[in-house]
């Protein structure tokens, strides 16, 4: 896993790499459809967004995005994180989350938030090992909202 390269996405069309990618862990499946890609493309152009892609040679390894399209001011939303199933369980997700936290801190955010499904145990572990806490989000009850205070 040493030769995985993490790079900022600089062109919107690189987001297409995610089209139809999917992951199933236990009873939980995650898949990129056109609506999610369209939302990612919109937020790509937002000031302060961070979009990272990891590759090993020509292989797609992982993607993460964080942006400020959240209903409270000065908060970063960790919107998407996806590790190619062949590379899961090796700490790539951990590196991506840490990169987003670092970016939010650098941009003087007061908090980072993220939302995940009740069934998504790897994402819950990833959040909790990085200091996020479950948060009673008044705007969303369909899953778990995690919050990391940075101020
Ligand atoms: C969530 C996800 C990004 C984690 O990526 P990863 O590179 O496998 O994560 P890491 O290797 O850094 O491990 C993070 C934690 O998940 C756990 N984990 C990884 N794969 C797992 C699996 N198959 N089953 C259970 N736990 C798993 C690890 O044990 C680790 O927890 P720990 O620190 O308590 O040991 C990855 O599972 C994924 O891409 N899932 C599909 C997309 C998705 O669900 N995105 C989040 C939407 S909100």
Fourth CATH level, the homologous superfamily: Gcn5-related N-acetyltransferase (GNAT)
Largest sheet: 7 strands, mixed
Shape category: globular
Mean pLDDT: 96
Show the helix and strand layout.
Elements: E1 5-8, E2 22-25, E3 28-31, H1 34-44, E4 50-56, E5 59-67, E6 75-83, H2 92-106, E7 111-116, H3 121-129, E8 133-135, E9 144-149
Parallel strand pairs: 6-7
Antiparallel strand pairs: 1-4, 2-3, 4-5, 5-6, 7-9, 8-9
Bound molecules: coenzyme A (COA).
Q: What would a concise description of this structure say?
A:
By secondary structure, this protein is an alpha+beta fold. 23% of the residues lie in helices and 34% in strands.
What does this structure look like?
This protein is an alpha+beta fold and 151 residues long. It has one domain (5-149): 3-Layer(aba) Sandwich (Aminopeptidase). Helices cover 23% and strands 34% of the residues. The strands form two sheets. The chain has a seven-stranded mixed β-sheet, with helices on both faces. The model has no long low-confidence stretch (mean pLDDT 96). Bound molecules: coenzyme A.
């Amino acid at each position: 896993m040493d030769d995985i390269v993490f790079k900022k996405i600089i062109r919107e069309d690189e987001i297409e790499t995610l089209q139809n990618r999917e992951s199933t862990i236990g009873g939980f499946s995650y898949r990129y459809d056109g609506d999610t890609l369209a939302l990612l493309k919109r937020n790509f152009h937002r000031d302060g967004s961070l979009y990272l892609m990891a590759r090993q040679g020509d292989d797609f390894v992982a993607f993460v995005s964080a942006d400020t399209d959240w209903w409270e001011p000065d908060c970063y939303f960790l919107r998407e994180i996806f590790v190619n199933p062949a590379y899961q369980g090796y700490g790539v997700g951990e590196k991506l989350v840490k990169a987003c936290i670092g970016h939010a801190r650098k941009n003087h955010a007061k908090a980072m938030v993220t939302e995940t499904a009740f069934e998504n145990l790897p994402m819950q572990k990833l959040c909790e090992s990085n200091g996020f806490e479950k948060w009673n989000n008044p705007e969303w009850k369909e899953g778990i909202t995690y919050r990391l205070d940075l101020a």
